[in-house]
Amino acid sequence: MSHNSFGHLFRITTWGESHGPAIGCVIDGCPPGINITPEEIQSFLDKRRPGQSRHTTQRREPDQVKILSGVFEDEYTDGLRTTGTPISLLIDNVDQRSKDYSNIKESFRPGHADYTYTKKYGLRDYRGGGRSSARETAMRVAAGAIARKVIPGLKITGALVQIGEHKINRDNWDDEQINQNDFFCPDADAANEWATILDKVRKDGSSLGAVIELTATGVPLGLGAPVYGKLDQDLASGLMSINAVKAVEIGAGFDAAALSGEQNADEIRAGDKGPDFLSNNAGGILGGISTGQPVIARFAVKPTSSIRTPRKTINRDGSETEVSTKGRHDPCVGIRAVPVGEAMMALVLADHYLRHRGQVGS
Questions:
Q1: Which of 72, 76, 266, 272 is a good FRET partner for 17, with 20 to 30 A between their CA atoms?
Q2: 284-299 pLDDT per residue, tens
């Protein structure tokens, strides 16, 4: 299986399966001299870690990261500094229950990758999806923690803005709320409503989809290239690579189709510290190049495919049957996709920052 790497100058390669002994990644191209500690990486992994609330899978993985290479003691602090050599990260899997998947060994779960993986590779690891499992995204989050530090002053914030048909009220948006509820939700009222909704969904053995919004501030002007290296192109590619993501939009996104030219244009005035954009329908990217405004993207996550509700399917031999997935699954996988989305945005921005620096020298 190829295509386990992402990025150009800041490049990650992930490895491991959901029910294997461990998962890991190698980061190549990280500049030397960046201060980093295992605790910093762990703080982002803890946001994604399963089993933290009744609204996510109850698989109990501590996701304790180990840095195996690429760092050395900082002589001025108690921390570590990157050396410029490949950084290797590892997380042990400690709470696998492979027997939970024995009933689907010969059946293809509708909406899951079981059918396509089997037809493409001739076999599949049915234990939690193997390589196709969202377990792999823990390594993206770990790598993203380092990528965030490549661009000075960069800040990335992800928020859940919709579960199922239920959207937040944007008039209630409060950044302080994002880390104060189980949903990374900026609207406290919506978070309370979602808790009730997901309790019922979980008891019914079903699932719901979600929409996540990402905002990056401190993005330098000029990242990206206008033809095949567009910043929004690579951002869309990175976000679409996340498990269960079915749509990505930048700035106004699909809503831009309903705007007039006058409404959509982000007018510019002369400000005290440079140009002032009067709006940001472009999501901080024009012609594939960052404007210096916040970069804004949203992505939609489909409902979790592994559900207890019996669904019609076929077996490996082509005979018709029904399948119901036991085990521990997220009633809304979009909740834990928030830190994963943040990480992918960080990886794309770090890569483009180094590419920009190599192109223009600053």
A1: 72
A2: 999 999 999 999 999 9
Closest CA to 338 of 193, 171, 144: 144
pLDDT bracket for residue 51 (50, 70, 90): low
Q: Nearest-5° angle of CA 159, CA 230, CA 8?
A: 90
10 Å CB burial of residue 280 (0-12, 13-18, 19+) is middle
d(CA 306, CA 308): 7
283 closest CA partner among 211, 226, 359, 219: 219
- Structure tokens that stand for 53 in this block: 């609330």
Spell out a b/e string for 163-174, using b for 16 or more CB atoms within 10 Å of the CB, else e: bbeeebeeeeee
**Rounded Cα distance, 154 and 274, in Å:** 19
The DSSP letter of residue 315 is B
How long, in residues, is the chain?
Answer: 362
Cα(306)–Cα(324) distance, integer angstroms? 8
d(CA 11, CA 203): 41
Segment 160-168 shows an average pLDDT of: 97
DSSP for 96-161, written as a single string: --GGGGGGGTTBPPTTSSHHHHHHHHS----STTGGGSGGGHHHHHHHHHHHTTTSTT-EEEEEEE
59 pLDDT higher than 60: no
3-state secondary structure of 298: strand
Among the listed residues 142, 182, 139, the one whose alpha carbon sits nearest the alpha carbon of residue 336:
182
User: Where would I find the H helices in the chain?
Assistant: 38-48, 114-121, 137-147, 188-204, 231-240, 261-264, 337-360
List the helix and strand counts (H, then E) for the chain: 7, 19
Q: Which amino acid is at 211?
A: V
Residue 71 dihedral angles phi and psi, to the nearest 5°: -135, 160
Give the global pTM.
0.92
Name, in order, each residue with C-beta under 8 angstroms of 102's C-beta and a sequence gap of 6 or more.
Answer: none
